[in-house]
Structures are given as C-alpha cells and as structure tokens.
C-alpha cells in the first residue's frame, strides 16, 4: 500500500535538495579557490547556517528513530540521558571558538588534518588521523545509509535496493556537484524540517494521548518506574547516565565532522548567533523526540521493535500531509549526517593524502576532477557495502563516535590551548585512546559502571600531557 | 613568538573558559534536580504541568534556563574580534 499524501511531501523535499545542489555547483565553478570553496564553502557561513549545519550533522538516525524507540521502553530516564546532548550546541563552538577560527585561517587549513599537520608537523599524526577518519566515518556512513534506505522502504513499500538507490543518488548528486556549500545549505533546510517535524509530532502525540497528565497516569499505572530517572528496569544509574555527558556532550569537540564546521564560519557575529540558535535547536529536537518516544507508549502500546515507534506513531496521530512533513525529518537527519561524512572523507583523500603525499603540485583542474571522482567513488563504495553490510563494518560503526573522540579530542583541544603540546604527546594519546577504547569495549563495556568512552578519554589526556612533557627537550 | 602576544587569544581563551563554566552549571542543574527530586518513591512525586517535578525542572526548565543564560553571557562577555591576521571585522 502506497500512501501518496505521505510520499508527495517527501518527493518535494528531494526536489528542493537537488535544486540547492545545482545552485551550489554554480558557486563552485565561479570560485577562484576551488579547494576552499568545495570543502569549506569559502568560509562564508553566517550564524543561522552554521547552527543548522552543526545541528543537522550532529542529529542523526539515532535522534529520530533509535532514541525515541529506547525512550518508549525505558521511560523518562532516557529523556534525561538525551538532554546530556545540550552542550553539543554551545560547548563545542565556545571551546573551539575564535581560537580555532583564527588559527585555521593563519594555517590556511581546509581540513581538520591540515590544522593538525601544521600544529604538530608530523606525518605520523597525519596518517593516524587520516586512517581513523576514513575507517570510522566510512563505517558510520554505511550504517546511516542503511538506516535511510530502511526508512524509505518502510514508508513507501519499495524494495530495499531500490530505496537505497533513491537515497544514495540524491545524496551523491548534490554533494558531488555542490561540495560543502550544498551540504551546508541543504543542512539548513533539513535542520528546519527536523525542528518543525519534532514540534508537530510532539503536539500531535500529546493531543492523541489526551494531555500530559493523562499520559503520565497511564505510564504510572503500567510501571511507576517509567516516571523515574532510573529507567523502567532501573538500569540507568546516575554515574552511567552522567558519563554520557562525555560521549554525546563534551567529547563532540573531537568529532572531525563537527570540528571542521567550526572553521567554516564568517565572523564573530556568526559564531555568537550560531551558539544561541544551535542550542535552541538541539534542545528542542533532543527533548522533543525523546519525550515523544515516552508519550507514544500509552498512545500506541505494544510496539516490539523500537525503531518502528516513530514512523508508526506519526502515521497514527497525524493527518497524512503532516505525517509526510514529519517523516521527512528523520530522512533529513540521516541525509545531513551522511553528506557531512561524505565530503569529509573525500577531503581527507584529496587534500590530506593526495595533495600532501602523492602530488603536492597538482594543478587546479586536476584537483577539481580528482575531488569530483573521489566523492563519487566513495559514495558508490558505500552503496555497495550498504546493499549487504558486512559484519565488520557494523562492528566498526559502533566504535565510530567514541573512537573518533578518543583519537582527536585532546590533539585538537590541547593543540589549540596548550603551547607545550607536541607531536609525541599527540601520537601517544591517539594510539592509547583508540586502543583503550576498543579494548574496553571488547572486554568490559560498562567498566566501573561508566560508559566505555570515559576511561579512554581520561587516560589519553594523561598520556598526552605526560608524553609531551617527557619529550619536551627533543622538540625545542 | 607572535602566537603568545596576540591579544585576540586572550579573548578566545576567556570565552573557552566561559564555555566550561556553563557546562558545569548545566550539569549541576541537570543532575541536582533529576536525582535530588527523582530518587524517592514515584508514588510520592509531585507534578508540574503533568510532568514529575524532577523531570520538569531538570529537563525542561533547566534547558530554558541554560538558553537564557547562554544568551545573556554572549551579550555581556563575548567580543567581536577579526579572524584574519591584520584584517578588519566586517
């Protein structure tokens, strides 16, 4: 069964996205610095664009599909945990902030690795960073891609491979031809869709449930623990939930796809505006979507697969046209995450590997065609893997968030604010952070009742500082 | 070294510290209300606008408060500085 009223808004959404891609392509062709334009949008982003692209890149399938599903089963405690993401709106931009903006202009850095390269002057740092970015982000791109296709599959009734190709072609076309500017502009639209969709669905759900009071009473009758901060099964301990502040709030500074955005904006004013808009946006989406998951329980009881809560609820409580708009939101979230990862992995290949190691004197035209091809080939490779995702990639994707944070957080932050930070410290902290992260995840993920990422981040800090101080003589 | 003398870095460093202070406040509000009011038996919860009080203060009111606080902080303490070396802010 195909519901055209639901599908038409989705198709409109795709058409607008294509239009943005073609418009951005004109900018790319007119620009006099191809690399800066294609991979960074010419450092021209204003406050609204910056806020939206940060938020849209950060908010992914898990904020709209996975998260509400868990909240459906665990109750208000999961909303509490989700609110640890609020700092992602202001902390990242304040901490990287103006210093990163000034330094990256001084270094003429276009990628995060450019910054690390000039700061640490070490090929080992470049290679380690490039490998982490390519491996982890390739894996998480595949996972998001699978999520996007599954969503289209469940909404339209198309077969998975067809759904995957529709999703992939859309993203590939506008990212390949339009570069970062297309990514940022579509992010602005997708971010707005995410916020509006959240608000509509929240209101619709509250009405369908007969008001908050009514819903809370039903939850309390079913299981009073749904209303506690500890989760319906008591699994959410204060320590465990608190350590999520590191993973999804503070550590976000170390995510390359986020950090690169912090060097793409125009001026101080844009930064200030973006902090405020971004925090409001992230606050609205994270609070709204996860609360929706909890409220859905009395409205639509008995859903067994968590990932189906949000789509089923939308179709249940909203009239078809509104449902189409709301269901565009998770698609927007997935697309805007994938496009950021695609352009980042492409820039790593072109700028950090090809231009740095293979052909430093490449001509403008050569760089251009290489960039288009690399972006296309990576995209197609992801599609190929997404058709039949190998175990290994799924496994890697689980590490992507924490792994990248363990690898990059301190190299970026200490590189910016601690003048004695050196390459030995950076290398040691990257290796120890990554290794520890994977080890702890394999051996005992809830070690001492904390989230996996906690100890690698703390220890890689100690290693960074210790090694930097111990090797000070060698570098000075 | 030029890096050390640049007065813009003083502004940038101070704003980064403000970011850390804001996170600490954010965390304190979030943690304090959630586990301060939410640790008792759910039968004894009081409710505000239909939500359990811990949830209302920690997740809803706390978030609004942070947004207002961030807005005030930026208005009062954040400075406009140029990013290009030797360039002027438009």
UniProtKB/TrEMBL annotation, chain A:
<feature type="transmembrane region" description="Helical">
    <location>
        <begin position="124"/>
        <end position="146"/>
    </location>
</feature>
<feature type="transmembrane region" description="Helical">
    <location>
        <begin position="158"/>
        <end position="180"/>
    </location>
</feature>
<feature type="transmembrane region" description="Helical">
    <location>
        <begin position="6"/>
        <end position="24"/>
    </location>
</feature>
<keyword id="KW-0812">Transmembrane</keyword>
<comment type="similarity">
    <text>Belongs to the sodium:solute symporter (SSF) (TC 2.A.21) family.</text>
</comment>
<protein>
    <submittedName>
        <fullName>Sodium/pantothenate symporter</fullName>
    </submittedName>
</protein>
<feature type="transmembrane region" description="Helical">
    <location>
        <begin position="424"/>
        <end position="440"/>
    </location>
</feature>
<feature type="transmembrane region" description="Helical">
    <location>
        <begin position="71"/>
        <end position="96"/>
    </location>
</feature>
<keyword id="KW-0813">Transport</keyword>
<dbReference type="InterPro" id="IPR011849">
    <property type="entry name" value="Na/pantothenate_symporter"/>
</dbReference>
<dbReference type="Pfam" id="PF00474">
    <property type="entry name" value="SSF"/>
</dbReference>
<feature type="transmembrane region" description="Helical">
    <location>
        <begin position="317"/>
        <end position="350"/>
    </location>
</feature>
<feature type="transmembrane region" description="Helical">
    <location>
        <begin position="45"/>
        <end position="65"/>
    </location>
</feature>
<feature type="transmembrane region" description="Helical">
    <location>
        <begin position="274"/>
        <end position="297"/>
    </location>
</feature>
<dbReference type="InterPro" id="IPR018212">
    <property type="entry name" value="Na/solute_symporter_CS"/>
</dbReference>
<feature type="transmembrane region" description="Helical">
    <location>
        <begin position="192"/>
        <end position="212"/>
    </location>
</feature>
<dbReference type="GO" id="GO:0015081">
    <property type="term" value="F:sodium ion transmembrane transporter activity"/>
</dbReference>
<dbReference type="InterPro" id="IPR050277">
    <property type="entry name" value="Sodium:Solute_Symporter"/>
</dbReference>
<dbReference type="GO" id="GO:0015233">
    <property type="term" value="F:pantothenate transmembrane transporter activity"/>
</dbReference>
<keyword id="KW-1133">Transmembrane helix</keyword>
<dbReference type="InterPro" id="IPR038377">
    <property type="entry name" value="Na/Glc_symporter_sf"/>
</dbReference>
<feature type="transmembrane region" description="Helical">
    <location>
        <begin position="446"/>
        <end position="470"/>
    </location>
</feature>
UniProtKB/TrEMBL annotation, chain B:
<feature type="transmembrane region" description="Helical">
    <location>
        <begin position="16"/>
        <end position="35"/>
    </location>
</feature>
<keyword id="KW-1133">Transmembrane helix</keyword>
<keyword id="KW-0812">Transmembrane</keyword>
<protein>
    <submittedName>
        <fullName>Uncharacterized membrane protein YhdT</fullName>
    </submittedName>
</protein>
<feature type="transmembrane region" description="Helical">
    <location>
        <begin position="55"/>
        <end position="74"/>
    </location>
</feature>
<dbReference type="InterPro" id="IPR010398">
    <property type="entry name" value="DUF997"/>
</dbReference>
<dbReference type="Pfam" id="PF06196">
    <property type="entry name" value="DUF997"/>
</dbReference>
<keyword id="KW-0472">Membrane</keyword>
